[in-house]
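Supplementary notes for students who missed Thursday's class. We covered one full example, reproduced here. Read the sequence, then the structure, then the short commentary at the end.
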Amino acid sequence: MTLHAITWDGSTDRLRLLDQTRLPGETVHLDVETVDQLVDAISVLAVRGAPALGVAGAMGVVVALDQARREGWDEGTLEAAIDRVRLARPTAVNLAWGVDQVRPLVAQGRDAVLEAARRLAAEDEAANRELSRLGVDWLLARVDRPRLRVLTHCNAGALATAGWGTALGLVRELHARDRLEFVHADETRPLLQGARLTAYELAEEGIPHAVQSDGAAASTIMRGLVDCAIVGSDRIAANGDVANKIGTLGVALACREAGIPFVVAAPWSTVDLATASGEDIEIEERPGEEVTRYAGVPVTPSASVGFNPAFDVTPARFVTAVVTERGVVSPAAGERMD
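Structure (token representation):
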């Protein structure tokens, strides 16, 4: 799969993003030249997904350095701009992590920062491929079926990473081994990342799938129509609590009741050992209009307000396995990430 959500374009020497708000209807790229443009792209989810945000954070430091040179910023203005990138979304730890990986190199110059950011992107794709291999080995050792039926929530594929994917990376690995039967993709209200993005990736690769409403997920699991759920993550606490797209907790609860694996796939950069538990994770609340409107058209009475938390936290006791490129940890069995 050659799909890349975020790249540094060598021909223009600038950051290029695939605008995911326009998929699947249109394929539009954004050339980012200013910090304002990048922060806006992150805020509206033109670029999203924890690993991709890590790369965006690292490359965003280069964007800030280029803008500082063009506009003659002093050091304080530059540092404030880098902080704006770092804090553009609070729940996903990778964004701040990506900035922090390259920020110490600012004194060495723009080229040193860009080289480090590109290396971070390459390492993310390599990590995704390795965790996919490890995760599928773990699943196939525990699920006794010739081909697995998988449920996934939101989008944790190539579009959410520097390449390959995390949760969808495992799906791709199963497909490549001819061990995948079918995928149930939750639509993921209110912005439909599952219906628009996960389904787009699955269709591109010819993987059999269906898109279902989020409300169908628990029933699909309890009816025995899937063998496991595989999701990504935006932050994993030291105790194994997992923050991911809103609706993930319900999937985990149903998996626990049905006795099937609930698997979280993420690179090690998503593990935040400085966060003791999910109680310490800030949950981003997005505009209520994303719930009360659809494609700009009101779908609720004018007096109604929208409640729109972007994420929820799944307690470690419901997480069968966390798969990273470093191996598999079982929080539900009492294993900690640290």
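Commentary. Residues 110-140 form the longest helix (31 residues). The CA atoms of residues 80 and 317 lie 40 Å apart. If anything here is unclear, bring it to office hours.
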